[in-house]
Write a structure and sequence with these properties.
By secondary structure, the protein is mainly alpha-helical. It has helices at residues 2-24, 29-38, 43-56. The protein is built from 3 helices and no strands. The longest helix has 23 residues, at 2-24. The chain is globular and about 30 Å long. The chain starts with a helix and ends with a helix.
Amino acid sequence: MVEKAAAGRKSEHIDKDALHLAETTDVSPRQARELLQKHDGDRKKAAKEAKNFKAEG
C-alpha cells in the first residue's frame, strides 16, 4: 500500500514537471512526460533532449 502511494507522488511530480517542460519548450506534454520518465525525472537532462527535438523539428 505504501508503495502505491509513493508511486502516485512520483507520477504527480513527473506530471507537473512535464507540463512545465512542455510550456518552456516546443514538445507536447506527452513527449515531455516520456522524456522525464526516460531520464528518471532528471529535469536538466530531459530539457536538454527536448531542446534537441526543437532544433531537429
